[in-house]
Target: tRNA (guanine-N(1)-)-methyltransferase
Amino acid sequence: MRFDVLTLFPDMFTVVRDLGVTGRAHGQGKWNLQTWNPRDFTSDVHRTVDDRPYGGGPGMVMMAAPLAAAVQAAQARRAADALPTAPVILLSPTGRRFDQPRAHALAASAGALLICGRYEGVDQRFIDRYVDEELSLGDFVLSGGELAALAVVDATVRLLPGVLNDDESAVQDSFNPALSGLLDSPHYTRPEVYDGVAVPAPLLSGHHANIARWRREQSLRLTAERRPDLIELARARGWLTPQDERFLKTLLAGG
Ligand SMILES: C[S@@+](CC[C@H](N)C(=O)[O-])C[C@H]1O[C@@H](n2cnc3c(N)ncnc32)[C@H](O)[C@@H]1O
Model:
């Protein structure tokens, strides 16, 4: 799997390439990162990648031509490396919200070309011609697409086979099917009493079924409080057991 990232700030991507879980996996060849700077695809002496917006208004707009040339070069390199043509994804606040199912789908693919916008955004003609999908990190505006692209790369790479060891397994994380798409339960580690607060008793019981039930109920409680939409989704998918439903009823009753 390879991510090709079009960015004016390639150095920002050393974070996922060199550090932590994703850095270790990159070093092991489990995924590959290639950055492409649109400035390397300009023909003027100033290496211009942006210009003023037609119609006036503040800020600058990224020009279509350097981005288009960079996309073509990236796809050509992928073909030369026997990788399939990758979908072109623009990080944009106007895109569809990036989520765990999208990360799973990307992890099962050969990767993607990620386009990082800057300034006021990207000339729409580039988007119409080259972009297959727009992804947003959330309802806020970043200064550039790099932080969003880093999030997409990190969330995807940690799902690749063998990237996380058993202790770090993504299976039990929030949003995953193994958790019925619910939020994760709280975690505790040593000491047993910290600042006068003890670890919840079921976690110390050594009784696996009781521990699993406690974690499930904490997941249900947290999800019902913070993300009732995920409870509805799990219910619609048939992922809630009769025991789960009984517990949710006790929550509604103020239990
Ligand atoms: C300052 S923003 C442009 C915002 C744009 N004028 C708007 O209001 O929708 C510059 C770039 O940051 C990136 N960006 C900003 N917020 C983002 C978000 N929530 N998700 C993904 N990318 C984002 C996009 O690539 C965007 O082109």
Remarks:
- Residues 88 and 175 are 25 Å apart (CA to CA).
- The longest helix spans residues 208-226.
